[in-house]
Amino acid sequence: MTAIESKEEISDSDSGIILHSPDSPTSPVKDLTTHTRALKLKHQSLEERLELCLLELRKLCIREAELTGSIPSDFPLMPDEKPPRVRRRIGASFKLDEGLIHQDQQDSELQALETDLAVQRQIYEAARKLSLEENLSKPQKKSRLQQCKREEKKVKDLQEAVFQHRIKSECNSPCISISSSPSKTSDDSSLSDVVALDD
């Protein structure tokens, strides 16, 4: 083996690996650099993808917390980050009277009024529950009470419309009454009116 050959090719007798000089066209140092660069790019790409997945997971956890009222245990937190405070969303569920939906089409106007009244009563009940929610600021409380009163007035107007329509069509079915509300409502037609009618 000449001195030039020994420069290009050095044999490691212990491991059996042949090491090439950096000047060699197929240098493992160049291959290693290329491979390292490729691994770094792949690592960076995976980190970006992981970051996007964590952001999506955070969004889903916050949506879950809005429904359940508590942050899930698998919520991804950064070091020294506190879990966010999430307010539970209050949903309103509506259940209509099946009898109103499947009535015969004898008086479609009355049926439409009764259906509107049933829906409006559900809206009023949801507004009433929202007005009773705790931990509200004064403006929120005032706004919700006003909304509750507006919905209650709509219910009373619809009740009156149903009642008047029944009188016109000589319908004997009883009037649907509003559920009692905790808000201050005055009932002017009290027992004194009944006594006056009896006279």
Automatic annotation (TrEMBL):
GO terms for cellular component: cytoplasm. Residues 1-31, 174-199 are annotated as: Disordered. Residues 5-138 form the Cytohesin Ubiquitin Protein Inducing domain. Keywords: Coiled coil, Cytoplasm. It is found in: Cytoplasm. Its main location: cytoplasm. PANTHER family: COILED-COIL DOMAIN-CONTAINING PROTEIN 120 FAMILY MEMBER (PTHR16093), INNATE IMMUNITY ACTIVATOR PROTEIN (PTHR16093:SF4). This is Cytohesin Ubiquitin Protein Inducing domain-containing protein.
